[in-house]
Amino acid sequence: MWITRYQVEGFNGLFIRPGPGRKPAYADTHAEEASARAELLHLIRRASQQSGGERSRWRLSGLRQACDWLKVCALAEIWQLLESFDIRCKRGMCWPLCDRSP
Fold it and tell me: Residue 92's domain spans which residues?
């Protein structure tokens, strides 16, 4: 409780402490975000059918099935992960994706 922290640490004990943060959206096999991004880009640059997909272009549901190392469930979470990796759709077609990194 806050009273115990105040008694032990004084006024500084009342400040909000940083939490553990958000859990990563990918498995522990990727120690860094860069390795997860690289594996995802490697997968996306291949045709969906090469990874067992039924369609010629990638869809979010196909990415979810092909990337068993992703810890996200909802399609919106996959979209957010792609945006955080700075991976965007090509204009005029939803997949394959293009990489906008410098």
Answer: 30-102
